[in-house]
Amino acid sequence: MLKIGEVARRTGVSVRALRYYEEQGLLTPDRTPSGQRRYPEETVEVVLLFQRFYAAGLSSRAIAALLPCVNKGHPSTPQRHLLRTERDRLASRVAEMTDTLHRLDQLITDADRRAGAAA
Fold it and tell me: Is the pLDDT of residue 60 over 80?
């Protein structure tokens, strides 16, 4: 079992963020008789997944709704719908970012050509 500081250190997430996850119902640590939080080893991977979900734009509410899929791997019909919705939203963002990347590549190529022609 890991202390809250160890989970924070291994995930790069603040202790405050871990407490927030607990408030949101995303994490449920065990408690020692003195009230200290203890987390199972797999909490590290779960928190890293939360961070990826947050970075992808999922809300705490969406993550909480999808948490049973992560824990049990058997999504309900509403969860499957949410998974598809979030996946489609993310795919759209990836397409937009890919287009932006190609445009930046073209600007760099054009700038390099002009710099080479001017030399």
Answer: yes
Q: Tell me how far apart the alpha carbons of residues 40 and 47 are, in angstroms, rounded to a whole number.
A: 12
Nearest to 27 by CA among 2, 56, 9: 2
Pairing of strands 37-39, 2-3: antiparallel
Q: Where are the beta strands (DSSP E) in the chain?
A: 2-3, 30-31, 37-39
Mean pLDDT (the chain) is: 90
User: Residue 56 in contact with residue 90, Cβ under 8 Å?
Assistant: yes
| 3-class secondary-structure state, position 36 | coil
pLDDT in tens, 16-26: 999 999 998 88
Cβ neighbors of 58 (< 8 A, separation 6 or more) are: 66, 86
Tell me the chain's radius of gyration from C-alpha atoms. 21
Predicted confidence band of residue 85 (pLDDT cuts 50, 70, 90):
very high
63, 54 Cβ separation under 8 angstroms: yes
**Largest pairwise CA distance in the chain:** 74
